[in-house]
Structure formats: structure tokens, C-alpha cells
Amino acid sequence: MKKKNQGNVFVILMLALLTIVWSIPTFGLFISSLRSEDAVNSTGWWTVFSDLKNADLSFENYSIVLTGRSMRGDGNVTRGAEKIQMIEAVINSLTVAIPSTLIPILIAAFAAYGFAWIRFPGRKLLFILVVASMVIPLQIALIPLLIDYMKIDLNGTFLGVWLAHTGFGLSLAIYLLYNYISAIPRDILESAFIDGASHFTIFFRLIFPLSVPALASFAIFQFIWVWNDLLVSLVFLGIEPRYEVLTMRLKNMVGTFGTDWHLLTSGAFVSMLIPMVVFVSLQKYFVRGLLAGSVKG
């Protein structure tokens, strides 16, 4: 028993050490985002701890990055920074990411329920085609899809991006949710059918609440993937500034302010905040939903 406890302590210490080492770059990024331009260019972020009283940490860089204006009101702002205004790009990213996460979740949940519990001709063949489509790179579908969008005036609209992300994410969503929903005990559904419940009622009253772990697991994957996406947004939204998502705005910042590390670090940390909030909010479902959607049994 004593050796077992010592082994557990060793594992905990190793995990704690790995977590600390893994978090150092993120912590350094955050510290750099709070420092002035001169401090970032002259000394490393770790030098802050040698003289905390004179570190001069502030949210000035975040004010410039988000609004294009200085908190101090002294007009001492990097030239061109007034054009960043990342808050607009954050709103655009949320406008893209939230529907692009919710729409495939709802469609995939319906499809997974149909594949799992409704018998119809060609069910197995269709499911095989859905799973097989996961290996198709989305890059080869961009140009044909863009041509079709131009024919129906969907190019350059948020609806076009929503539909693109929905199509690219549906295969994985259906696969994960199918394995989870098909593992639900059959007795629960048969009891509901005996009581006269329809498929629609069973789905919303039983299947949907029981599938929350799998739904949350996919929501994390889909939201983070869409939030960090550059290619799909660039292809279907174009380069018009009022439609730029956060990744596009960061790309432009790297080109315009490639040496202004105090602004780049602030912009990078802004892009990390919302995905971190989403993951922390849903993490209790993450492992359970991922395992349930990946292992049949």
C-alpha cells in the first residue's frame, strides 16, 4: 500500500511538472502582452519578477489592440494601430463560430438518431459513406464550393461560411454521436414507444438530454476548429475589412506590425481567451463524451 501511495504521488508530481512546463510559453505571452514596447524589445519577460514594483504592467496594449485607442489618452500610439480594432473581428468570429457549431450539432444529432434507431433501406451504406467522407481533405472542396456559391450569391456572406463549416464538420459529428446514441439501452426507447411516443418526442425528451456529454465533446472540437480557422473564412468571406474574423485580423497584424511584439502578444492572447472559456465550461463532459463517441460497447 505504501509503494502504491508513493507511485501516486510520483505521478501527480510529474503531471504537475509537465503542466507547469507546458504553461510557461502561455504565461510568458501574457506577461509580454502587459509590458510596454520598450520593455518588450529590451528585456525578456522573466525579468519582470526581479523588480515587480517597477515592472509597469498595464492593459494599455489590449486597449490599443481592441479599440485602436490608448487608455492614457496621450496619443502615443503605434502608427496604424487605430485600424486594428480587434473587437470587431472578435464579434465576427463569434458570428461565424456559434452558428457553425450549433447547426452541425443539431443536424448530426438527428442523423445519428436515424442511423442508430430507425430502420430504412441503404442505412448501412449511407453510414459507410458518411464515415468515408471524413478522410476527404476540405481543401479539394473549396474551389468547387466557391464556384457554386458565386452562382447563388452566397460568396462573401456569413451564411456561406456557416454552411461550409457545417458540411465539413458533419461527418465527424455524426460518427461520434452515432456511437454514443446507439449505445443507449434499447429498453428505454421501447418503453417510450409502448407509451405512444413519436420519434420526435423520443429524440427531444430522451436522446438529446442523454447525449449531452457527446454533444459537448463535439462542440469543443468544432468551436475551436472554426475559431482558429483562416482558410475557409478567407475563401468564402474574402478580404473585406468589415467581414474579417480574428485569424484574418491577426494575419494582417503580423504583416503590418511584425516587429511590434507588445501588440502581437496582446492580439494572440485575445484570440485564446474565448476558446479557453468554452473548454473550461465544457471540460467535465469532454473525456466522457469523447470516449463514449469513440468506443462502441
Defining traits:
mainly alpha, 2 domains, globular, disordered C terminus
Structure in words:
- With 297 residues, this protein is an all-alpha fold.
- It has two domains: 9-83, no CATH class; 86-291, MetI-like fold, CATH 1.10.3720.
- The protein is 72% helix and 0% strand.
- It is built from 13 helices and no strands.
- The longest helix is centred in the last third of the chain and has 34 residues, at 261-294.
- The chain starts with a helix and ends with a helix.
- Residues 293-297 have low confidence and may be disordered.
**What is the CATH topology of the largest domain?**
MetI-like fold
Low-confidence stretches: 293-297
- Helical content band: over 70%
Strand tally, please?
A: 0
Order of helices and strands: HHHHHHHHHHHHH
Strand fraction: under 5%
Shape, per Cα inertia axes: globular
Rg (C-alpha, Å)? 24 Å
The average pLDDT value, as a whole number, equals 81
* Known CATH architecture of the largest domain: Orthogonal Bundle
Distance between the termini: 33 Å
How is this structure best summarized?
By secondary structure, the protein is mostly helical. Helices cover 72% and strands 0% of the residues.
List the helices and strands and how they pair.
Elements: H1 2-33, H2 37-42, H3 60-67, H4 86-117, H5 123-132, H6 139-151, H7 158-181, H8 186-194, H9 199-210, H10 212-227, H11 231-237, H12 246-256, H13 261-294
Helix pairs in contact: 1-13, 3-13, 4-7, 4-10, 4-12, 5-7, 7-10, 7-11, 7-13, 10-13, 12-13
